[in-house]
Write a structure and sequence with these properties.
alpha+beta, Immunoglobulin-like, Jelly Rolls, 18 strands, 19% helix, 34% strand
């Protein structure tokens, strides 16, 4: 009898073990099926990544959108939805294709032009609130949202000083940031280390103003009557040979126009004004405006430097 009891206990133990194993097996199978289902679900198709720049001319009811960087965009997979003062308007893929000369792709550098008057019967005015949504139709993904505003046109020609906003490069071994030149008397300035005796065109500080003329009320094709550069700088001693400013030439992107400027050597920060209207006289010139500072010293010693505390551009 004792042996029978022992056998029954062992059978019960085996039965419990098999039950647990079966439950674990069922759970594993369920998780495997769910995992296969989740990972088999396809994500949205890839959509183009591009950067677009916008501006508008309310005098002609015209909106411009330029493809500035990124991938080409298929015109048959593109739609533009506009929200203008709370009302919805659509520019279809076929209309976009026609606007771009019946091309299959919207390529880098091409400008899409939409006339709101002929397209939607609108009379655009200053201070209209306009939002454009550039949509990839296969995925319904938003490529970019574009917001237009012309509030700045309240005083279009009284915009004050424009400081660099695009970027700054120093190849002299010194240091320079945008914040160094955007405010006066703030204890921040650039450090340019000039080479000895000869100006070396590969040793410079370059400032890209990154101006969007439309943000200041200027329209494409406008002429500028006065463009003046303000520079607050110091040379720290009297060892400089020369200071050269170079201006980016929009007409020939491979050429920098040299404008040799004689500036007094100052041990303290000094303000100079340079008239650039001869070189910068259109909105296109303004949009691409960059300057370079090159210099040389006749002192054969280390720790020679030029400091720039402020750069500003006055535009009329």
């Amino acid at each position: 009898m004792p042996e029978g009891k022992s056998i029954m206990k062992n059978d019960r133990a085996v039965s419990e073990t098999m039950g647990v194993a079966l439950l674990i097996g069922i759970v594993v199978i369920m998780l495997s099926v769910e995992g296969a289902f989740v990972f088999s679900r396809g994500g949205p198709d890839d959509f183009p990544h591009a950067s677009l720049q916008e501006w508008m001319d309310t005098s002609t009811e015209t909106i411009y959108i330029k493809h500035c960087s990124g991938e080409a965009i298929r015109t048959d997979e593109l739609e533009i939805v506009a929200n203008i003062n709370g009302k919805r308007y659509v520019h279809t893929s076929s209309e976009i294709c026609e606007d771009l000369g019946n091309k299959s792709h919207w390529e880098l550098g091409e400008v899409l032009v939409i006339n709101a008057s002929s397209e939607w019967g609108l009379n655009l005015k200053d201070y209209d609130q306009i939002d454009f949504y550039i949509i990839d139709t296969p995925t319904k993904e938003l490529i970019q949202r574009v917001k237009f505003t012309t509030d700045y046109r309240k005083t279009p020609y009284e915009i004050g000083w424009i400081t660099p906003m695009g970027g700054v490069t120093d190849t002299s071994g010194g240091s320079a940031t945008l914040a160094d030149v955007q405010r006066e008397n703030d204890s921040d300035w650039t450090v340019y280390e000039p080479p000895y005796e000869y100006v070396n065109s590969s040793i410079y500080e370059e400032f890209d103003f990154g101006v969007n003329p439309c943000m200041y009320g200027y329209r494409p094709g406008d002429s500028l009557s006065n463009v003046t550069l303000k520079i607050v700088y110091r040379t720290n001693d009297n060892s400089l040979l020369k200071i050269i400013f170079k201006f980016y030439d929009l007409d020939d992107p491979d050429i920098w126009i040299s404008h040799e400027q004689t500036l007094p050597e100052k041990n303290h920060f000094y303000t100079a004004h340079i008239n650039l209207t001869e070189y910068v006289n259109t909105t296109e010139d303004l949009a691409n405006f960059k300057i370079r500072l090159e210099s040389a010293t006749h002192a054969n010693s280390e720790n020679k430097e030029i400091n720039i505390d402020y750069l500003g551009l006055w535009v009329e």
